[in-house]
Amino acid sequence: MLHYAIVGATGYAGSHIRRIEAHGEALGCRVSAVTIRPADRLDGQVEQFAAKGAAVFADAVEMFDALAGKVDGVFIPTGIYTHCELTCAALERGHNVYVEKPPAATVQEVDRMLAAARGSGRVCLLGFQAVFGPGINFIKDRVVSGALGEVRRLRAWALWPRPDSYYARNEWAGRLKVGDSWVLDGPTNNALSHEISNMLYLASPRRRAFATPRAVRAELYHARDIESEDTSAVEIHTAEGAVACFVVSHCTAGEHVGPWIEIDCANGRARRTFGGPAEVTYADGRVESLPVEGADPGLAPLANFTEAVRAGDPQLVRCDLAMGRNFTLALNGAFESSRKTHAIDRRFVRRAGAGPEATTVVDGLDEAISRCGPQGRLYSDIGCPWAVKTDPFDLTGYARFPAVFGSGPAS
Predict the structure, then answer these.
(1) Torsion angle, CA of 120/97/4/60, rounded to 10 degrees?
(2) Rounded to 10 degrees, what is the CA torsion of 277, 281, 286, 287?
(3) Would you put residue 397 in left (φ > 0), alpha (ψ -120 to 50) or beta?
(4) How far is the C-alpha of 262 from the C-alpha of 213, rounded, in Å?
(5) Of 75, 183, 210, 364, which sits with the fewest C-beta atoms within 10 Å of its C-beta?
(6) Which of 383, 393, 380, 386 is nearest to 335 (CA)?
(7) Which domains are present in the chain?
């Protein structure tokens, strides 16, 4: 039986705990320790974990120190700006690590994490769940085999409203920085970051790889009174030749719609709907499809982490930090290209609903995304009245964020 320690006990940490408790017997793993800061502890919570045989620590690094050589892996489902420090601390103490997406806010932090992983020789899995999913891998198999031919164009889009409660849930939601640490929170680096990772994964013809971003043109906006972005349009040019376009917002009207991914290849095209089917249509008219995905999306990465830890083999990990670096490279390029997060003109912004579930809505945005997404265009490309044209940012040799972000208006 493998023993795991979790940093946190509520939010996404709670999801990990519940998943391990539900599937641990079958996978051969259990929760043996958690970190809960004293200020965050609920009545009876420590006793509940103790009754399950799990130790409770007040501090993550204290837990890493105390359990070095005594647990088989640690889970780090914490704020974006804490990922680098906590991951490096755990790896340097000899722990195997499961770190949630995104890997970090900046490429230099991911490089630190990669160096720590190489130095430790331990397993380090990155929790981009969808990369483990059957729908994405149904398409990836046909890219890797060559059946679809060269990947030329990818598009992902979603209407994904978030209420006030989403932004009130922690101290870093919607922030560019916390103290001196970059966060770059928003749909691009958090809630819908999976779709960028999916496109980079599908754009590479290699099995365990994300395509390498070469240049990025991006427009990042906020309709809410926040520092970072809530509305995004990003065009990624890859070294492999494919161009990926990502168009999303947390300020749309109505219910969540999407995300969708569409891929154009030399020998056909593919489409995958979040929670729905994946379909491949070849140039000769043949169609292959995979039905609706039904399994818990977090189960496959947990199983993969457990497999790699049990074997002591980082090469068994299906999504690792080296892959995640290309995601963060694209993310940093997006902020550099946009130069700043542009405020959407208040004439186009309204409030909907009341209380914690109230939302901010940009009039006409649903229609704009529905045009931009399938066409692979940015907001300024279709003449949105609040849009700001930006230039591509060249990522050749890029190794540190920021270079031009925050230094002035977009040209």
Answers:
(1) 90
(2) 0
(3) left
(4) 19
(5) 364
(6) 393
(7) 2-128 (3.40.50.720), 131-294+320-394 (3.30.360.10)
Residues 93 and 117: beta-carbon distance below 8 Å: no
Q: What is the pLDDT of residue 411?
A: 39
Per-residue exposure over 173-187, b if at least 16 CB sit within 10 Å of its own CB, e if not? bbbbbbeebbbbbbb
Give the residue ranges of DSSP H helices in 276-389. Answer: 299-311, 321-338, 365-375
H, E, C per residue of 7-76? ECCCHHHHHHHHHHHHHHHHHCEEEEEEECCHHHCCCCHHHHHHHCCCEEECCHHHHHHHCCCCCCEEEE
How, if at all, do strands 243-249 and 151-159 pair?
parallel
Cα gap 126→80, rounded to integer Å: 13
Share of the chain above pLDDT 70, in %: 99
Torsion angle, alpha carbons of 298, 299, 305, 307, to 10? -170
Q: What is the DSSP letter of 227?
A: S
pTM score, whole prediction:
0.97
Rounded to whole angstroms, the Cα distance separating 74 from 6 reads 6
Q: Which of 144, 14, 26 is nearest to 77 (CA)?
A: 14
Q: What is the pLDDT of residues 43-74, one digit of tens each?
A: 889 999 999 999 999 999 999 999 999 999 99
Q: Determine the Cα–Cα distance for residues 216 and 244; give it in Å rounded to an integer.
A: 10
Instruction: Taking residues 131-150, report their average pLDDT.
Output: 97
Each as own residue / partner, the long-range contacts of residues 16-25 (CB below 8 Å, 24 or more positions apart, any chain) are: 16/75, 16/77, 16/98, 16/298, 16/302, 19/296, 19/298, 19/299, 19/302, 20/302, 23/299, 23/302, 23/303
Q: Nearest-CA neighbor of 302 among 138, 145, 173, 127?
A: 127
Encoding tokens for residue 50?
């103790």
Residue whose entry in the numeric block shows the structure tokens 């186009």: 348
Q: Of 343, 375, 379, which Cα lies nearest the Cα of 364?
A: 379
